[in-house]
Design brief:
Strand content: under 5%
Number of helices: 4
Radius of gyration: 22 Å
Largest sheet: none
Distance between the termini: 70 Å
Structural class: mainly alpha
Shape: globular
Number of strands: 0
Length: about 110
């Protein structure tokens, strides 16, 4: 290996080290206490799909229900019939803020029977 290729290799190693050190540690969510926050992880995809459904004419209740299901599948995969998971506060709050009910009354999480 000649001096030029050694120097080039060292520069590449330094660039890789800099890139790795510049990666930010995930911020812990104040609401769900997860790092990274589930809404930060899945929210953009949920937002885009649900807004297209809203533009297609669905009412807010149907869009919210779709958003809840979409989040659950993305986070937990397909669940069995009576296997339910509560939504983190941040995810539920973002969904209800984006597609609110007129009277702001929501059913909330119900445990399977």
């Amino acid at each position: 290996m000649d001096a030029e290729s050694e120097e080039s290799s060292e520069v590449e190693d330094e660039e890789v080290d800099e890139a790795l050190s510049e990666k930010e540690d995930p911020v812990v969510c104040d609401l769900c206490s997860q790092a990274p926050c589930d809404w930060e992880t899945f929210g953009e995809e949920i937002w885009e799909e649900c807004n297209s459904l809203k533009e297609g004419g669905l009412d807010n209740k149907a869009v919210r229900f779709h958003a809840y299901k979409m989040y659950t599948r993305m986070r937990h995969g397909v669940l069995r019939r009576f296997d339910r998971q509560p939504l983190p506060v941040c995810v539920c709050g973002e969904i209800t803020d984006a597609w609110p009910e007129a009277d702001h009354v929501y059913v909330g999480f119900q445990q399977a029977m």
